[in-house]
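thread: overnight batch results

M.L. [08:02]
morning all. the overnight job finished for the chain we discussed friday. pasting input first so we're all looking at the same thing
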Amino acid sequence: MYLVYADGQGNVYDHPELYGLARSGDMIVEMLEEELIPLPEGATLVGLPNTRAVGMNPETGEMLPLPEGSQAVGALLPQGFTRLCLPGYVKTDKSYKLPLFGYSAVVWKDGGFYVAADLTDDPEQWNPLNCDREDVEVGVSSLTAKYPENRLYDHLSNCALGYECLTSSNTFLGRWEGAVPVSYSCNAGCFGCISEQPDDSGFVSPQTRMNFRPTVNEISEVMLEHLKTPQSIISFGQGCEGEPSTQAKLIIESIREVRSITDMGYININTNAGLSDHIRGIVDAGLDLMRVSTISALDDHYNAYYKPRGYTLANVEKSLKYAASQGVYTSINYLIFPGVTDREEEIEAMVEFVRRTDLKLIQMRNLNIDPESYLELIPPAQGEVLGMKTMLEIFREELPGVVIGSYTHVPPADLARAKQRRVQI
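M.L. [08:03]
and the structure it wrote out:
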């Protein structure tokens, strides 16, 4: 398990002597053989600017940072893979904030790259290699020509072609889960927001938030164009927008309009679910799926990251309970971070939260953040750090009826039939 590092020009090397190390929170740790898997297809190796990789002398156990001029290397994993460790590094400039990505530990072993990760879902559907960019360009040309006045298609074309966002690409490919952003505003001030950051945050947002309010007609056109197969999903709440439920009136009118024409496919919302009354109205309009973003089931941790405006974690729980009671297939978009999510108190609180809200699915998502900034923001650990692998095992044992995955799923057959009954009503 040899150390992987890069030089100043971005060339990647494996060290001939030192073993690779990893991080759990702010602790440098040894990597475990049983946690390593070959680097998945679709993963990307990246250098970590202003860092030095840290390796271990296998004979003495001494931890050694490489000389200046080198930098640590991390892997960015495709959906379906949950990282178990961060790369082992020290910063050469402690004021520097790493770009907003989910860095995973990587080593060289048996003639290839390996990462500390767990396969938590089928990676094929969201493998970037399965998204033909030429096909996306054809789809963009076709739909923007068909709907020349629809600003949403113009906006999504930049997401698909510029950012190579897979969800917006699906919108133009007419497959799987497609995107329909609706909101330029938000009721949270997420520390790691990928679409809007305060000028003094030190982070650079990798995406630009939409800056207009679409019409019901624009929204309905996108939804109806995508909802043409029983397995299709159209989703409010994208990385290029704020909180979709702040535009509840638009969403409610659009769902009603679409469901008056077709009962095909599934309507999903990705939301923080803090606006309980708005969520209730959206659910009652005919919502099928709801994915709620959370980083913790503990108030102090949740509040530190999300900085909620006018709502609390109790509102989030209320929204989830109501949606589940109305037959909506509910899940959480669980933003996970090795050394934090696997703390004893975090695991216990999340297990109870899942049970109380009758969740059907936990979507494991690697948190895109600068590790030092995040660790400075949140409360310190109160109990033992059990490890990400152990955390996943506890979830699977304690929550046997809950799916552990990485992205939005079409409900099982019994819940799908319940959805059809809701549409008819």
